[in-house]
Design a protein that fits this description.
The protein is of the alpha/beta class and 375 residues long. β4, α3 and β5 form a beta-alpha-beta unit. The protein is built from 10 helices and 13 strands.
Length: 375
């Protein structure tokens, strides 16, 4: 058995009181949920949404072009790469070590790799020590606008990114950063429901509303939610049929109460290390990222086959309920000591052979044109 991506902290269980306390600590600010969903605010009278700080909030119906200012410009053209080291701030093991070593072999720059556990932790660290890092892997889409507007990440100089220009899927939504001025996709994935079908006899994919299973008290104590704030509350919004970017205060209050009831009745655990928990059968049902399915096989208990795992993304089930597709994004902190190296690393990850090599380990889909059905 060996380690795999996205950190290894043990799951946490939260009571109703602890759920509220954790929400406050991570900036959730229930019931507004603005820090989670980046979509809870007020109308400016012209149909667009603004957050508590007055920032425009992005959604597919309200795409945002993030401003580039004199105080936070892109780096100049034609600079030589720094000697390094390239300091990466990322989820644990979220780029294959073999791929990192390939970059070092090519450039001569060593890599220092510092781990964060959740998007909330990443944002807090950038606020306090952003220039300590050269590349973040990854920014989540709800944080892109506030990090750029707060000048915590710098705009790209795309003259250093020819592979990105050639390979990035043109169809990929960029409403949160039109033109990808500050962020670039690293991976894409869905967020759905994984379960042990050898322990759960219900056909969750066939339910009228698959999200209901997270409130089914038959599975209390054996049901886990993802521990990122956006992912956690999105389960409640999706269960009710609401968009994850919902901003109506009454709806958000309704979802808040639903989540608190679930915290009481279900004894949810919160983590994103679902694969590492398989060997000890710590859960039967888990809110999960699709990319994790690729390496469940390495952690199953002895004698249990991968066919014991099912995964459902509700939009593709008979219920046709809403679901999430997300992007994890590269970004370069403002004040980074080695920004040319950071650009080179991003462009290296967009080389088709490198992207495919990394995908065979990470199982999260890179949005690369050349990795089509014939690859």
């Amino acid at each position: 058995m060996f380690d795999h991506p996205k950190s290894r902290r043990p799951p946490l269980g939260f009571t109703r009181r602890e759920f509220l306390r954790r929400s406050a600590m991570t900036g959730i600010a229930l019931p507004s949920a603005a820090a989670i969903l980046a979509a809870c605010g007020s109308s400016d009278g012209e149909g667009s949404e603004t957050g508590p700080s007055g920032l425009k909030l992005a959604s597919p119906d309200n795409p945002i072009t993030l401003p580039i200012t004199d105080g936070n410009p892109p780096i100049d053209d034609g600079l030589d790469a720094e000697d390094g080291p390239l300091r990466i701030f990322a989820y644990d093991d979220y780029i294959w070590k073999k791929v990192l070593n390939g970059f070092t072999d090519r450039t001569g720059a060593d890599i220092e790799y510092t781990v964060f556990d959740t998007p909330e932790e990443m944002v807090a660290k950038l606020l306090s020590n952003g220039p300590d890092f050269d590349l973040v892997v990854t920014i989540t889409i709800e944080n892109a606008g506030k990090l750029a507007t707060g000048k915590l990440i710098q705009p790209f100089n795309k003259s250093y990114l020819p592979n990105v220009e050639d390979q990035l899927w043109p169809e990929l939504p960029d409403f949160f950063d039109v033109g990808h001025q500050y962020t670039l996709p690293y991976t894409i994935y869905s967020t759905g429901i994984a379960w042990r079908n050898d322990l759960v006899s219900d056909d969750i994919a066939g339910m009228d509303n698959p999200w209901d299973v997270f409130w089914d008290t038959r599975f209390a104590g054996q049901t886990h939610l993802l521990n990122g704030a956006r992912d956690t509350l999105s389960v409640g919004l999706l269960r009710k049929g609401y968009d994850p970017s919902e901003s109506d205060p009454a709806i958000l209050e309704e979802v808040k109460q639903q989540m608190l009831e679930g915290a009481d009745s279900m004894n949810w655990k919160y983590d994103h290390v679902d694969y590492t928990e398989l060997s000890t059968s710590q859960w039967q049902i888990h809110n999960a990222w699709s990319g994790s399915m690729g390496y469940y096989q390495y952690y199953l208990p002895k004698g249990v086959d991968i066919t014991a795992i099912s995964y459902a993304w509700p939009p593709t089930t008979p219920s046709k309920k809403k679901g999430l597709i997300a992007q994890d994004l590269f970004a370069i902190p403002t004040g980074a000591a080695h920004p040319v190296l950071a650009h080179q690393m991003i462009d290296y990850m967009y080389e088709p052979d490198v992207a495919l090599q990394n995908y065979t380990y990470e199982s999260y889909q890179p949005p690369i044109n050349s990795l089509d059905e014939t690859t």
